[in-house]
Write a structure and sequence with these properties.
Blueprint: H1 2-17, E1 30-36, E2 41-50, E3 53-62, H2 65-78, H3 83-98, H4 123-140, E4 147-148
Parallel strand pairs: 1-4
Antiparallel strand pairs: 1-2, 2-3
Helix pairs in contact: 1-2, 2-4, 3-4
């Protein structure tokens, strides 16, 4: 079990130090802002849709390692998904990190997102892991209010 935990920590650190998709999307994109006042995480999530499918997703911002890794992993995972698929993934990810997941079967196709499951043992860190996801949903629904973990 400790080997697996080390692997997960390495992946989180890798995505935090070298985040994927850390850039703005200029052409015909939608965006939303997110802020976690407890940790100081602040980011913008950008999405470009082609019809109902996410053609591209990215983010810019600063934050703790969990927040940056989660945003990086999220942008990799949601590309090419439909809005409905993203909504389903959001729910399953949220359940994973809050400990609401009923069984391993419901999370077995979460892929690399599984590395963030350990935050459920640290409730304050759940907000760090989910901030980018809440901003993603706001961008998809063109919600212009800044998303805050405290509202």
């Amino acid at each position: 079990m400790s080997d697996l935990r080390e692997l997960y920590q390495e992946m989180i650190l890798d995505h935090a130090k070298s985040p994927r998709n850390r850039r703005a999307i200029e052409e015909e994109s939608q965006q939303a802002e997110g802020f976690n006042p407890l940790c100081g995480d602040r980011l913008s999530v950008f999405v470009r849709l082609e019809g109902d499918r996410l053609a591209d997703a990215s983010f810019l911002g600063t934050g703790c390692a969990i927040c940056m890794a989660s945003a990086s992993l999220m942008t990799e995972r949601v590309r090419g998904k439909t809005r409905a698929e993203v909504d389903d993934l959001f729910t399953r990810f949220h359940d994973l990190v809050t400990g609401k997941t009923a069984s391993e079967a419901s999370t077995e196709d979460m892929g690399k997102l599984q590395v963030l499951a350990g935050v459920r043992d640290f409730p304050v860190r759940v907000k760090c892991a989910t901030l980018a996801w809440h901003a993603l949903r706001a961008a998809l629904h063109q919600d212009t209010e800044t998303i805050s973990t405290e509202s």
